[in-house]
Structures are given as C-alpha cells and as structure tokens.
Design brief:
alpha+beta, Jelly Rolls, globular
Length: 267
C-alpha cells in the first residue's frame, strides 16, 4: 500500500470533508452503554487506508513534548516523561516533515470539524442534558496525539469540570496489547470511586467517548515492559460557554503554540 498522502490546496477541503463524514458515521454506529456510566465504544474510527497512513507516519520521539496535568506526577526517576504529546493543530504540526504534516493535518482538521462535534453531542445528548440542562452549550475541540511508555499510569479520576466530552482513539499496530485499555469504575453511594467495572480493549482503530460527569471515574493501569509505546489520540471538548471559558480555551492554545515555537528553535 502506498504510504504517502498528497493534498493539493484544491482538494484538501474535500479530503477533510470526506474523512469527517466517515468519522461521523463511526460515531453514529458506535455501541452505547450506560454501565458504569454512559459511554460510546468505537469499532472502526478511521477508514483503513487512512489508519494505515497514520501508523506509517507517526512522528519521531523528538517531535513530542511533555504532557503535564495528571501524568506529570508519574515521570520516571530519571526524569523521563511517561506521556508526551503533539497538538494536532496546523500551527503545532508545521515543523513535521511534509508527508507527516499532510497526514496529521488532515486528521486534526477532520476531528475538529463541526459535523464530528455535532455527532458526539447528538450521541451523548442524555448525559450532556443531565449536566447542562436543555440549553445549548458550546464545546471547543482540542485534539492531541499522545504517546505513553512503560511506567505510565493514571489513577482513578473523573476529569476536570472544564471538560465537556472526553474521547480517546486507540492507535496500536496490532492486537497484542489489548489489555492496556482504559478502565471504567463504578461509583459509590457517596459519589466516590468504586470497583473496576469495565475495561476498554486497546485494539486497532477503536476507542471510546463519554460526557464528563461526577460519576465518570476512569483510570489506566501502569504500562508494562511488554509495551513499546501506547499511542492514541485524545480529543477533548472543553466547555466553551461564557467569556471566561471562551478566553481560556483560546488563550491556552496560543500559549502552547508559543511554547512549541520556543522549543523548536532551541538547539
């Protein structure tokens, strides 16, 4: 299979629309479950040829930068970051080689498209309504390509309330590490984290999504030495309602861009 992608200015828009339409179909076809909380499970997120291109055009280790937040506390003793990332916005991936840039630009633009956002909001309408009521709530998409290495783990949590929808799309090359998927937990009567209830399968071209709530407890066990890298896309929809959130979302994007440019200019 040809592992290159050529997108001329005239057909990039059509390619983005085509990929967006496919992802919308994947979201619409996703299995839905209410246990232990409402979530979707995807079986085939991207077309097979696009998925092959993504795997063939993974960035180099030096292209990633540390991911902070909850993962920061789980760095190795020598300071190695166990989770790194690349934001899939045009301004972040512009330093990648042309072929890799073309692939990830296409994927990032499709994931940020309005039809994809509307599909997630439509399929997760019930839990979103429980949290926000019937009023229309803005959502701001942030797609990032993440890479975890042995030693990475994340303890049970429910995600910050700045977030509205959490999506993770798994990118393994085969089914040899299906046991390292995200764990979903029950919640106790007082709202605290309960027992392990379900685990996602870390299978090729799969994933899950849920609307963030007080009961959406999830975690990830420590990545073991049998894993080389645990690659995935985190697509987070941040609540984009009101001036504070509007400015915060765009300010964080600009701030991360500045840091990325500084990093790329350092020797």
């Amino acid at each position: 299979m040809d592992q290159t992608l050529e997108l001329r200015p005239g057909n990039r828009r059509l390619a983005v629309e085509s990929l967006s339409d496919f992802i919308v179909g994947s979201v619409d076809a996703a299995a839905s479950s209410d246990a232990p909380f409402t979530h979707l499970v995807f079986d085939r997120v991207f077309p097979d040829d696009i998925y092959a291109l993504m795997l063939a055009n993974m960035p180099e280790a030096a292209d990633y930068r540390p991911m902070h937040g909850r993962s920061k506390g789980h760095d190795l003793t020598d300071g190695t970051h166990t989770r790194v990332k690349i934001d899939l916005f045009p301004e972040y991936i512009r330093h990648l080689p042309p072929q890799k840039r073309a692939v990830w630009d296409l994927v990032g633009r499709a994931l940020c498209s309005r039809p994809v956002k509307e599909a997630f909001m439509r399929r997760l309408a019930a839990p979103l309504t429980r949290r926000f009521g019937k009023r229309k709530t803005g959502m701001y998409p942030i797609p990032i390509l993440t890479r975890d290495i042995p030693g990475y783990l994340i303890t049970p949590h429910t995600d910050t309330r700045w977030k509205g929808i959490t999506v993770q799309l798994y990118l393994p090359r085969d089914r040899s590490t299906t046991h390292i998927g995200t764990i979903f937990h029950d919640h106790n009567a007082d709202g605290s984290c309960g027992a392990k209830a379900k685990q996602m399968s870390f299978a090729p071209n799969s994933g899950y999504a849920f609307a963030v709530g007080t009961d959406t407890w999830h975690s990830a066990d420590a990545v073991g030495p049998e894993v080389k890298t645990r690659d995935s896309i985190l697509l987070t929809y941040f609540v984009d309602q009101g001036a504070l959130r509007f400015l915060r979302n765009r300010g964080k994007r600009f701030g991360n861009f500045v840091l990325s440019e500084v990093r790329n200019r350092l020797p």
